Description:
Largest sheet: 8 strands, parallel, barrel
Shape: globular
Number of strands: 15
Low-confidence stretches: none
Bound molecules: flavin mononucleotide
Radius of gyration: 21 Å
Order of helices and strands: HEEEHEEHEEEHEHHHEEEHEHHEHEHHHH
CATH class: Alpha Beta
CATH topology: TIM Barrel
Distance between the termini: 25 Å
Mean pLDDT: 97
Oligomer: single chain
Number of helices: 15
Helix content: 25-40%
Structural class: alpha/beta
Number of domains: 1
Strand order of the largest sheet: 3-4-6-9-10-13-14-15
Amino acid sequence: MPKHFRYRSLEDLQEDITRLGLQDEIRISEDLSPLWNPVSFGNRTIGNSLAIHPMEGCDGHLDGSPDELVYRRWERFGAGGAKLIWGEATAVQEDARANTRQLWIHDDNVSDFENLVLRTRIAHKKSIGRDDDLIVGLQLTHSGRYSYRKPLIAYHDPAVDPATLIDKKRKIPVPPDYPILSDGDLKRVEDALVHAAVLAWKAGFDFVDLKQCHRYLLSELLGAKMREGEYGGSLENRTRLVRNVIGRIREATDDQLLLASRMNVYDGIPYKTDPDTNEGIPREPYPIPYRSGFGVDEQSPLKEDLTEPLAVIGLLREAGLQMINVTMGSPYYNPHVGRPAEKAPIDAYETPEHPLYGVARHFRCTAAIQQAYPDLNIVGTGYSWLQQYLINAGAANIRDGRVTIVGSGRGALAYPDFVKDVNDTGEMIRKKVCITVSYCVALMRGKHNELGQFASGCVPRDKMYAEIYKDMLKTAPDK
Ligand SMILES: Cc1cc2nc3c(=O)[nH]c(=O)nc-3n(C[C@H](O)[C@H](O)[C@H](O)COP(=O)(O)O)c2cc1C
């Protein structure tokens, strides 16, 4: 029996939203027409207001190029009808990958990425009839402290270091004398980002995302108040790397590559499992003032403070960025913040809050940003827990100027053609929706095969992943 999502109708959902006092933050519309608004993006048009969020499947070849499962996922997204496909995390250098099978774009595999764009476009055109208004981007990432070979950290974070392991088997956290990336190292990261962006442009992507979320490297830098030198301390320093990269990409591509960023607007604080309840509790004691996170209220870190995120978005817009995908939290230390879920993944705690509070946090922060920058394209996150009603919440948010484009992440893994169904029938089919039970995350955490990584996808809705999941459990060393 689901614990939280028990709704048989939109009225049931509305009742629960009201019961929790969240009716200002989570709104519902039966009129879905806002979802079909076209959106201007640079000199292009996005044909509707629906996006597929970046969803990596940890299923590339060891050399970083897409394997068949990657093509399959992108083709399914392409055929599904969303007009914005926000391609998944793709590393800009090998040691910056988050896992052994993460995509990695480099000089020797550009043609594979070109093929990926092409196959996605062909699938879209075949299914929808036209692809001139389909926009396909690539998320460029440096995994920073979550790089798979070893943590590459921007600064020693008293709250996050104890939750970052240098030895996962023996559970040894980052020690105080662990080296941090130097300013010279970060300059080389700038070079790698610019180089990868040019390659993505050559491969035919319409835009790149300079990933600043989920506490990977550029996200960590946004909160690097305690770092010294050119890339830490002041907001100007903390945004130096991304601003430099934007300027250099614009120059290198003659302003032809559109630029976006997926950005954490609230990092939150690390959580751990309460052994008595299995639910998440803050890792105590966290310091006050809490200076570790970005977008975090220093006096009350369980709450957001959007002063800095709003300022950064202003700086990025001035520098030439045209779209922001708003997200939050860390998949490693507070997954309930980024991904409101019905059931925890195997490596995490059960949600410490009703997931509607998590959805409301996403919507509230996104609305504040959209309302501060009404002319900027803002993509919203955190919709999947709403299952088939995500379209009603999305339509209301667009209608009320609280977001420009509604994105689906886990929802799209389960149900890649939801946009087509909504277009054809006016609703999402209940039997196809994501039920947020986190098997996709469990698969991401599986490392014990010959490739060092199991492929991830939707276990309840996509049979082949149920097989992979069974295999993962069967072969687990500590089962
Ligand atoms: C299996 C899996 C893969 C993901 N891959 C990425 C990724 O490559 N880049 C990224 O920014 N977020 C990634 N995310 C986060 C999602 O894009 C999204 O932010 C999150 O699931 C919340 O949105 P939702 O409620 O629509 O699922 C991933 C999440 C999952 C569960």
